[in-house]
Each structure stands twice: as C-alpha cells, then as structure tokens.
Amino acid sequence: MVRKILVVRTDKMGDVILATPVLEILRNIFCESHIAMLVQSYTEDIIRGNKNVNEILLSDNKTILELKKIFKERKFDAAIVLFPRFKIALALFLAGVKIRIGTAYRWYSFLFNKRVYVHRSRIEKHEVEYNIDLVKKLISIAKIKGDIFQPKLSIYISQDDEKTANTFFEKTQVNKDDVVVGIHPGSFGSALNWPVENYAKLADELILTHKYKVLVTGTQKDAELVNTLCKLMMAKPLILPNNFSIKQLAAVLKRCPVFVSGSTGPMHLAAAVDTSTVSLFPPIFVCSPKRWSPWGNKQKILMPEDLSCKICTYDKCKNYNCMQKITVEEVLNNILELLKQ
Hints:
The relative contact order is 0.12. By secondary structure, the chain is of the alpha/beta class. The protein has helices spanning 13-17, 20-29, 44-47, 64-74, 86-95, 127-142, 159-171, 196-209, 223-232, 246-253, 265-272, 289-292, 328-340; strands spanning 4-8, 34-39, 55-58, 78-81, 99-103, 114-116, 180-184, 213-216, 238-239, 258-262, 276-280, 299-302.
C-alpha cells in the first residue's frame, strides 16, 4: 500500500505551477495517503496552502546525505521525480525509497527502479501531460482503479494576499470598472524577449487610444527593464512593486482580464488564476508552445512567422531580432479579441 508519496519538482516557478495538476490527481486516487512535495524555497509559495499537499520540503543547498536523511526519516513508499537530477535520484536510492519513478533516458536513470520511457526533448505533448505520465506509472504499480482527469493549474490565494492586492489597486486609484491589462516584459532567461520598445508602444496604445489601464510587473532583476519601459512610454502605467510574493502577484493578476508576456513563470501564474493570456513565444524548438503554453485558460499564442529553430545562436543568427516579427498591432488585436470574449 502506498501510504506516503513524495513529488519532486525543484526547478522554476512555471515548472512548479505546471506540476500542480499532478497533486490533485494523486489526492483523488490516493485519498488517504500523505503527499509531500520537494521544491526550492523561492517556489514554496506556489504550493503553500494547497489542500492536496500534506507537507512541503525544501531542497535548497542540501547535500545528498542531507536529502537521504530527510527521505529516510519520513519513510516514503514512493517518489515521483518530475524534474530529474542526479543528486535527488541518488538520495532516494540511498534512502531506500521502495518505488522511485523517473525518466528512463538520463545516465543515472538506473537509480529509478520504475522508469517512464518518454523523451520530453521531442516535445510531443504538453509538460502537464508529461508529468501525468509519471503519475500513471504509480497508479499502475499500486493497481488502483480511478479516472485520470486533467485538472486545471492551482494556486491557493489567502485572504491576506487578496487584501494586499486590493490595497495596491486602491492606492493606484483603480476602480472595479477599470479594465487592467497586465504586461510582463521580462523572461528571467526562459526565452527570447519581445523588444521593450514594442511593449512601450503597446502599453501607450492601450492607455491613450483604448482608455484601459496597464499594469507592468517584474521581478527585482527586471527593475532596469521596467524602468526603461516606463521611460519609453508617453502615458503612465501602473507599476507593481517587485517585492510582491508569488501569491500576492497571483491575487493581482486575478484582477486582470488579460495578461501579456513572453514564455515565463508569471504567464503560467496568470493561467492558474484563469486570466486570459497573450503569450509571445520564440521559434526555438525547445521553447515550443506545444510543451510550454499556458494550460487551461483562454489564450492566444503568437510566434515569429516562417521560422523554426532547433537552437538559438542569438547574435550569430541572421534573424537575431526575430521577435520583432511579432508586431504591436498583432498583439493589440489579440488582446482586444480576448477582452471582447
């Protein structure tokens, strides 16, 4: 019997958000089991409060032996490694976790005794579906019958987070009838950026022509980019403080009917609160929207036309400015179409 289950996803914000459907499926199938999740501390906020999780464990700076000790003390019956890393795989092996589920195509995959034979790099399906493949393995091993459904992404926003969002809108004089379009110009290195000049033109068009309000979001690392965007604009946007937590950001995005960004964590956060998205994807194969698009919300995906690159050589490429092929008019029209819906 599988009494204690560990789910491992120790990478970035968007990846952890895309793992949340797994938690709901596990809770639905293994109703009475203790479900824990191993994440980095900076993504812990995404999982905190999730009714499908009994315990959150943090991987930050922990050695193999420290992780082994944690896993052994908790006596996990099964571990599902959604984001495979040698350190995690070895720690689970040394801890004697009975069922260790992971991908079959890493050099250290022998450490997983229950392997799933899928090549994520081939991008044949969405990341959420790849995650579910690993859960199906555990269900098959446990010989439990149950419906495998595809739930939406989830993030549990507290009343305090809602209050913080409401206070921000009150201070910036945003009324309930105001239409606020969110814009996130950074990508945290996840993909190529749309030019900041284009974001500035788009924001001005939304504010000056269509009389909407524009909210610009960004992390502390995006501060210079956000500052540049504001300097390029004729109108004045709303600027979200870059010290907002992930859940506070989620509460704010919940108030935006449309959110515009590249392929980045906040895009998935917007989808998790059912905000419509206009997402600007580069033509790089590994960044394909087939695997990384928002999940479960109304959405528009825009990419540079007639380009498909296996890798990106940036300044060595004759299409180095390929993201400029996505026009401001094209993005604006997609925003307006979503707002009509």
